[in-house]
Amino acid sequence: MFTKDSILTTIEEQQIVEAIRLAEQNxxxxxxxxxxxxxxxxxxxxxQEVFYILNMQETEFQNGILIYIAYESRKxxxxxxxGIHKFTGDDFxxxxxxxxIHYFKKEKYADGISVVIEQMGEKLKEFFPYTxxxxxxxxxxxxxxx
Length: 146
Ligand code: CA
Ligand code: CA
What we know:
By secondary structure, the chain is α/β, with parallel strands linked by helices. It has one domain: Roll (Diaminopimelate Epimerase, Chain A, domain 1). Helices cover 47% and strands 15% of the residues. It contains 4 helices and 4 strands; from the N terminus they run αβαββααβ. The protein has helices spanning 10-23, 43-53, 82-105, 109-127; strands at 30-36, 64-70, 75-80, 143-144. A 4-stranded mixed β-sheet has the order 3-2-1-4, with helices on both faces. β1 (30-36), α2 (43-53) and β2 (64-70) form a beta-alpha-beta unit. α1 packs parallel to α4 and α3 (82-105) runs antiparallel to α4 (109-127). It is globular. Bound molecules: calcium ion (2 copies).
């Protein structure tokens, strides 16, 4: 599934940051992407660890979503904080994860991540619409490795 040293070009990274910015224009929710080369932990467990490292549990409405990718280990996970998870349940995260893998198998990394970000934005918007007082609580930049 992953064959390169890095899965995104600089331009693709910028496109993803822009996709996050656009998605967050419609919701108070926050989306982050973390990409690392390898990690042998179960992906959900590692994603939860990264979630806390990035302080994603600190959003006001507990509506942060993390897209986690370890490209050499061929692992992906998508997790959401309590506030959003209570509306979506596991099925939504699993379906989005499958969609991501579908794109990754075709080596369409940037496209896959962008599509999932867009869908995360749509889902967040249903439950956490944008308000005028909204803050960008979590950086839109891609988090890379540790
Ligand atoms: Ca926000
Ligand atoms: Ca943000």
